[in-house]
Amino acid sequence: MLKTICLAAAFAAVAMTPALAQDDDRAGFYAGADIGYGKSKSDLTYTPRAGAVQSGGADKNGLRYGGFAGYGLTLGDSFYLGAEAGLGAGGGDTSRTFGANKISVEPKLRYSLVGKAGFLVGDSGLIYGKAGLERRRLEVSTSRSKEDLKLQGVIYGVGYQQMLSEVVSVHAELLRADYGDKTASFAAGDRLKVDASETRVVFGGAVHF
Q1: Residues ≥6 apart with Cβ < 8 Å to 17
Q2: Which residue segment(s) compose the domain that 100 sits in?
Q3: Domain of 93: which CATH number?
Q4: Residues 6+ apart with CB under 8 A from 66
Q5: pTM over 0.90
Q6: N or C: which end of the chain has fewer CB within 10 A?
């Protein structure tokens, strides 16, 4: 359902007739980069080949960074609609020890596709919400082996953008990604279920074309 909503928003942003769009610096194609601070939360459930199931958390705060590109339209006097694709990384390793076995979780690349909708503020501001899909790869390991997990979930949040000139903008966003849970099975026969989520505050800039 969310994938359908994202694709619909992307189609609408590109396919709207020019007669509906206003001549505005906030409309059109754009690309940029952002950096910020995030808190990742991983609830781990470890099932050894022999022995009792154990569970615990492995949380990590740290730097996040990425790039993005998108397209938007201003409709009427105050409404904005767009779609955006993003690629990011960061977060740092985290670990949890269950008995004599150390479990490590290392975040890798994440990428997203979101729809954006909001309201124009004055001549150069924009307040908006965004929601869509985000995928992320995690490398999880025990003391004896490692596996890759590919997570998919929803990302949503709010932001504010300010045009500094006709072609340059800055923005701030508060975002939340919920990936749900997925299980890795290791060669030794043990299993690890990871239920992951992340909250991010990011600041960035973009060039508008």
Answers
A1: none
A2: 2-15+25-208
A3: 2.40.160.20
A4: 33, 34, 86, 87, 88, 89, 90, 110, 202
A5: no
A6: N
